[in-house]
TrEMBL record:
Compositional bias ranges of the Polar residues kind: 1-13
Signal peptide segment: none
Pfam families to which the protein is assigned, alphabetical: CRAL_TRIO
PANTHER family cross-referenced by the UniProt entry: CHROMOSOME UNDETERMINED SCAFFOLD_125, WHOLE GENOME SHOTGUN SEQUENCE (PTHR46818:SF1), DOMAIN-CONTAINING PROTEIN, PUTATIVE-RELATED (PTHR46818)
Organism: Strombidinopsis acuminata
InterPro entries assigned: CRAL-TRIO_dom, CRAL-TRIO_dom_sf
Residue stretches making up the CRAL-TRIO domain: 160-275
Top-rank lineage group of the source organism: Eukaryota
Name assigned to this protein: CRAL-TRIO domain-containing protein
Length: 275
């Protein structure tokens, strides 16, 4: 597998004179002391760094820039009548969403809670997860803010820090679906046994986080493409070999701290014993 995405059409690779330039999500302290999306701001942590020459030339297809998502890709409705918003940016919210967002901002002010721009811009995603309960949404936001501060306290996840581990092909992007959502594959059998022996599953999680930050930086178009699908491939693994703890961490990171970004979780090549 490869950590990059291929497509027949794409925006061109950046010019050569920028190849040694590192790209970051947002400079620290750029928003400190201000309001962002109606929330008091903390410094924005540097979470991601990647040299331009390591950005795949077909990361973002041209079609994504003019793509108009189908209503089902914006708000997904389930058979039981429940619905979930999937596209949150550059789009008109429903009346209840606007009302609950205002309540969430009020809860944050009352608690004196501050968030980085990245977290505050996810406010409606937290509301969706909390089933429109502002108090629960605030707890989720706070947990993610604390996680990001802790995880990235020593600096961004860089291409240089994960490039050797990515060569195992454990986690990689593999194209997009008909709504232009990227698919990320997790090949559990490729996790080195040495990592289990040394209790270094954190190396696997770090690769996954790098991929998610790469996705957010280069593969989305707000209002058009904001989600991805996760394909967990269990090929070659028996019941006793399935790394449940590692896969549990995948779910935890993706569903708790990159909230609202996973459109679907798929599991393929599962043992009949597990099925």
């Amino acid at each position: 597998g490869s950590p990059t995405v291929a497509s027949t059409k794409s925006t061109p690779r950046v010019s050569a004179h920028r190849k040694n330039h590192k790209s970051y999500t947002m400079p620290a302290r750029v928003m400190q002391g201000q309001m962002y999306n109606g929330f008091a701001c903390l410094d924005e942590a540097r979470t991601f760094s990647c040299k331009e020459e390591n950005i795949a030339p077909y990361t973002l297809p041209q079609e994504a820039l003019t793509y108009v998502p189908h209503p089902d890709a914006v708000v997904t409705t389930w058979a039981n009548g429940d619905s979930e918003r999937k596209i949150h940016c550059n789009i008109r919210l429903k009346g209840q969403e606007v009302e609950r967002l205002a309540m969430l901002r009020g809860e944050a002010r009352a608690e004196g809670t501050e968030f980085s721009p990245t977290v505050s811009s996810m406010a409606t995603r937290f509301l969706s997860r909390a089933r429109m309960d502002p108090k629960k949404a605030l707890k989720l936001m706070t947990a993610t803010q604390e996680w990001r501060c802790q995880y990235f306290k020593d600096g961004p996840v860089s291409d240089e820090s994960v490039i050797e581990d990515m060569k195992y092909g454990i986690t990689y992007f593999t194209g997009r679906d008909n709504a232009l959502r990227p698919a990320i594959v997790v090949r559990a059998i490729r996790i080195p046994q040495q990592w289990y022996k040394e209790k270094r599953i954190d190396k696997f999680i770090r690769v996954l986080i790098f991929c998610m930050e790469y996705f957010l930086r280069y593969m989305v178009v707000p209002g058009k493409v904001e989600n991805l699908s996760v394909i967990v491939d269990l090929k070659g693994l028996s019941l006793s070999q399935v790394p449940l703890s590692a896969l549990s961490e995948v779910y935890k990171v993706m569903s708790h701290h990159y909230i609202g970004r996973v459109f679907r979780f798929y599991v393929c090549n599962m043992s009949t014993t597990l099925g």
